[in-house]
Amino acid sequence: MEMYESELQQAVRRITARGRDQNDFSFKMEYLPPDPDGGGMFTVRYEIAIRHQKTSKSLTLVGGIGMDWVGAFDAALEKGRFD
What we know:
Blueprint: H1 2-17, E1 25-31, E2 45-52, E3 58-64, H2 69-78
Antiparallel strand pairs: 1-2, 2-3
Helix pairs in contact: 1-2
């Protein structure tokens, strides 16, 4: 949960850096089951459902060690995915 909280703070900073209102976005995180092909390693992975409240547009991304959902979210913001 600590990793997700840190990434969520980064995502909020990217929202405000792009001149948007952070309150227009909601984030919901749910843990994913361990990867059965993980070779015995249980890496924590989670799904992040992001919704823009005013347009109702949403995006679902996967986070965890080695995954950059914040960068993918920022790219979606830049491309107007939530407009």
